Amino acid sequence: MIQLQLLVLLGAVAVNDPRIELVELQAADHVEEALALTERQLAEDPELAARRGLAYLQGHLLERLGRNEEAVQAFASVVATTPALANHARYRVARNQERQGHPEVAAGLTATLLGRQPPKALVEPALDLLERTLEQGGDCRLLGGLAESGLPKSARRRVMLADARCALRGGERDAARELLAALVEEQRTDLTGLLAAEQLMALQQEQLQIELAQLLGEAFHHHRRFEHAEPLLQIAVENRPAIRTEADFQTHYRLVRGRFWTGRFELAAADYGQLARIARTPQQTAQALYHRGRALELAGHWPAAIAAFRQAFQGEPMGNFAGASLLSALRLEWRLGSEATALELYDQLRRMPSARLERARAALFLASSELVRQREENAARVEGWLDDALAASRRASVEVLYWRGRLRESGGRHVEALEAYLQAVEIDYYHPLAGEAMARIDALPESAGRRQRARQEAAAGRAFRAFVLYGPRSSEGAQQLELMRRDVRRTYGREIAPVRTVSPSAWPLWNARLERPEDLLLALGLWHDGAPAARRHFPIHQPELAFTAALELQKSDRIRESLLISEILARAVPDGVPEPAIEDVFRRSTHPFAYRFLIERSAHRYGVDPKLLVALIREESRFDPRAASGAAARGLTQFVLPTATRLAAEIGLGPIGPLDLQEPETAIELGAAYLAELQERSGGNQPAMVASYNAGEAQADLWQLHCFSEESSEYLSKVGFVETRNYVDRVLRSYAIYRELYPPPRDRRLAAR
To answer: Which tens digits make up the pLDDT trace of 472-490?
Structure first.
């Protein structure tokens, strides 16, 4: 009884909590009403309002209304009244002071909060602000002690870089040089390492020491600044021409790799050959020879490339490059017409247990080559290759079924072709080759009996098959889609993914102990600032609560965090449920159209499909403007600096630096311009466009040369890198989903989902 009374009491507290109404008012964009209620609560019960941080919300709402002086006063009061939010309040005041033209005040506030163990989520934006305001005239003495204040390593390094820049402004070149060298020595792969290396190079007047030249060369190489890396790595190589250690080999390899990546393929091929001659181990020799083969292949010297690939295999027949070397040689032999020799290489691959993936790719390469050339006389061996591909890799099942459908179709067996295509679509509805299969189904002659088969599948209760056969955009297809969704709900007794949100009054948040800063901010309806607490109070094991958090985070521009929650929820969808059976309202949370205005504006300016651009951004960065890859690509559209610099100059953006890539507008503009360039280069072939974006234009062009046709399906099966093939699959899959979920206004009445 006592426990029941306690629960009732807690429920009553939650229901009467004014923050519930404040959350609802903000969600409805009733800012003035929310401010009035906040100020009323501050006046009626100052102590309770202080514990809840309402003065912080007051400052936030005043700032939204443009009442900046009053906002500063409200935030300033938070430091004394709500210590848990003091650092957040200092940051908001500092940001306001920067906007008002007082960088020295902003820098002082920011340095103070960074020295007081701020919440993790506040560190990066505070450092951004500190760096800007120091450049604008803030007092460099504020940095004293910050590097030893317990900040994370990445933050400490940024403070050291700011310290070095301050030393330079004060004329202390030796002190600056020492700090910059320490940063480069400690780490060369982060942005701070690149900026330190650039600053250090600008300071150098005398000849570099060999060790420092190598470190700088490694930094510039990692960040694709090859024009700086090459002469520095050359110094290191000339002073240590022999390879005694793995580190020596990597230094030589980086030098040659930079020449390869900058398209000097013949020079790179010669250098790889020299590297193979001085390598110490069979693995190093095989690696150098394999990449010599790649350079020769890209340079158009295919017979020499074949020889290099064979040498790489012979150098280490059981090594990491053995299967790739045989597959590469096979492709070129076949493409040059030496089919018997290619088939000998295929037999070698089949005898290698460690080369199952390469064996599957070889089988699909051979089968697709025969089918697009319509060489019906070789149907039996094509059947064998397709069986072999499936035996070697179950992940190739959609590809195998698509090409098996093509094989049946070429032999006039249209009913069997229809079944093969249908099975491919059933396995993975949004796979690019499933899309090709649906197009083939539509084009089959009447003898295939597609409409009759659709009726049969519908009568048998197989709604998904009927949906595909009728066509997703037909009225019959739309009916089958609804039946499919109804069947799924009936089978599992529930929605397989959440479609409803929980109203604020029912959030468990109100009955929780809210002591951390992010907890308090979340309870004020400030989802952007409170995002780190979202999964704690809206847990995944309560799907509708978690879905509520995903949508609120999305509205607050916390797209990456929102997407993560939705993707975790999507994993709970039972195996075997067709993806179209998931309701649109949930699928829009896994495929949000973030930055829509910027994306559509840039896409239309350059004549590319905005749905393809948003799909690419989703897969490249998960809509995180600060995303950085291990290959030094940055921002929403994940550009490396050399490509971004070239494009920026061509489209009139002017000089551009690595930090500019974190600006959404800049990143999206560059992404649209680059897609337009690739679209023109590929003649509109979308798989080739997307492959170029990931692997580079030269490599994507080479895969087209491996093809015997202009068919997208052949190109999809001949993308040679696993990483790029998976990337193309993900982007085109997302592209298909975005086209369904966000149709143009005039077509929305036709959309099936």
So the answer is: 999 999 999 999 999 999 9
Read off the pLDDT of residues 427-485 as tens digits, 9 standing for 90 and up. 999 999 999 999 999 999 988 899 999 999 999 999 999 999 999 999 999 999 999 99
537-549 confidence digits (pLDDT tens): 999 999 999 999 9
State the amino acid at position 315 in one-letter form: G
Per-residue model confidence as pLDDT tens digits over 665-691: 999 999 999 999 999 999 999 999 999
Same domain, yes or no, for 40 and 147?
yes
* Residue 288 belongs to a domain: yes
Question: Rounded to 5, what percent of the chain is helix, strand, coil?
Answer: 75, 0, 25
Residue 429 lies in a domain: no
- Which domain covers residue 268, as residue numbers? 242-336
Q: Are residues 63 and 199 in the same domain?
A: yes
Per-residue confidence at 205, pLDDT binned at 50, 70, 90? Answer: low
Instruction: Please report where in the chains the tokens 């503009």 appear, as a residue.
Output: 669
Q: What is the average pLDDT across 90-117?
A: 96
Chosen domain end from 568, 590, 612: 590
The pLDDT value given to residue 1: 41
Section 368-381 average pLDDT: 95
C-alpha angle 647/648/652, rounded to 5°? 120
Tokens of 548: 């509520």
Task: State the DSSP code for 524.
Answer: T
Question: What are 217's two structure tokens?
Answer: 């060369």
**What number of other Cβ atoms are within 10 A of residue 172's Cβ?**
14
Residue 142 belongs to a domain with what CATH number?
Answer: 1.25.40
Number of domains, the chain:
4
3-state per-residue secondary structure call for 133-169: HHHCCCCHHHHCCHHHCCCCHHHHHHHHHHHHHHHHH
Q: Which of 203, 228, 263 is the last residue of a domain?
A: 203
Measured CA to CA, the distance from residue 132 to residue 137 in angstroms comes to 9
- Phi/psi at 639 (5° precision): -95, 145
Asked whether residue 520 is domain-assigned, the answer is yes
Q: State whether residue 501 is helix, strand or coil.
A: coil
Same domain as 735, residue 602: yes
Distances (CA, A) of 249 to 191, 245, 284, 440, 667: 25, 7, 8, 51, 36
